[in-house]
Specification:
By secondary structure, the chain is α/β, with parallel strands linked by helices. The chain has 8 helices and 7 strands, in the order E-H-E-H-E-E-H-H-E-H-H-E-H-E-H. Helix content is 38%, strand content 18%. Strands 1, 2, 3, 4, 5, 6 and 7 form a 7-stranded mixed β-sheet that branches. The structure holds flavin mononucleotide. The site of flavin mononucleotide has 19 residues, from helix 1, strand 3 and strand 5. Flavin mononucleotide binds next to helix 1, strand 3 and strand 5.
Length: 195
Amino acid sequence: MSTTVLVLYYSKHGSVAALAEKIAIGIAQTGANAVIRSIASFDPDQPSRHPLVANSDLSQCDGLAFGSPVRFGNMAAEAKAFWDNTSSIWLKGELINKAAGVFTSSGSMHGGNEANLLSMMLPPLHHGMVLMGIPYAEPELHNTQTGGTPYGPTHVSGLQGNTKLSVDEQRLAVAFGKRLAQLSMSLKSAGFDKQ
Ligand SMILES: Cc1cc2nc3c(=O)[nH]c(=O)nc-3n(C[C@H](O)[C@H](O)[C@H](O)COP(=O)(O)O)c2cc1C
């Protein structure tokens, strides 16, 4: 019984996309399928590093990692607009009892990354998903000088938005992907996702 975890994100300058790729590495380490999909920009000329998401990617996944940059303390409008088009999935209850977690990137250290993660949890909760974060058993959570939170992976991209992921941020993103895939597999093998 194969398990598919969707890594779904919006990113303008690539920081959230970089976190998505690390999360996918963690998912793949468990033997689950990692599917990376991006949410289209409102700007039709903006390129995307990964294929654009279709609603079928969401309804067919066994688990979800959802990422967006911080925009004035909240998720990007593109990410919110994506969720606003998922009523048909909600009506069928297709995400109920599936695992989910959230990730983000902010320009500054205290620019709202944790607040954003909390608000990004709202759509998956309304869809009935089982949310998870990162436990303090991960040593990097105690030591990171930049991103990485118990609410989910984060990155601090700096004033110019081009700072690379730190080693701690990378490790926490991989650990998060691994944990999300393990939880997705557990819920699926117990038949919980079908209840
Ligand atoms: C309109 C706008 C609003 C932003 N608001 C915030 C903010 O509230 N706090 C913050 O720390 N960074 C903010 N940023 C910076 C981005 O969150 C940051 O550059 C992020 O790493 C971008 O992710 P991306 O490279 O995946 O697009 C904002 C950027 C833009 C364009």
